[in-house]
Design brief:
Elements (H helix, E strand, L loop, with lengths): L4 E2 L4 E2 L2 E8 L8 H14 L6 E7 L3 E7 L6 H19 L13 E10 L4 H9 L7
Helix pairs in contact: 1-2
Organism: Blautia wexlerae
Protein name: IS200/IS605 family transposase
Pfam families: Y1_Tnp (PF01797)
């Protein structure tokens, strides 16, 4: 079984899959920009109780798998990350400004999915059978 995270009062294992898209789906992400975006993530994430598990990119979006704590405010973290990384990436890679001339690097929207563990149907069946006597 996977290592379960814990704090003083609870145990948990919460995986998420996040997809962030470049504003207007501009094709600006290359390996160095993706690596820098990942470094920014790794700098900010611990303050929110977030641990990076996987990172990969295409030319107009990134996929991130991470673990979080129950108390983590995911939307606050994502917005903080997008703000900081937009500012830094556009400053450090001036070529981005040719395709994204305004402040934002990322689209305002994102896709966040829970991941890991057992399929929802298995959990549903387990809960439904609680209290039933086994012969």
């Amino acid at each position: 079984m996977e290592n379960i995270d814990h704090n003083a009062h609870s145990v948990y294992l919460m995986y998420y899959h996040l997809i962030m898209v470049v504003k207007y789906r501009r094709k600006v992400i290359n390996d160095p920009i993706s690596e820098r975006a990942k470094e920014i993530w790794e700098y900010i994430a611990p303050r929110y109780g977030i641990v990076l598990e996987e990172w990969n990119h295409d030319i107009d979006h990134v996929h991130v798998m991470f673990r979080a704590q129950p108390k983590t405010e995911l939307s606050k973290f994502i917005n903080a990350y997008k703000s900081a990384s937009s500012l830094l990436l556009k400053k450090e890679y001036p070529e981005i400004r040719e395709k994204l001339w305004k402040e934002a690097f990322w689209s305002q929207s994102f896709c966040l999915l829970t991941a890991g563990g057992v399929p929802v149907e298995v959990i549903r069946q387990y809960i439904e059978t609680q209290g039933e006597k086994k012969n």
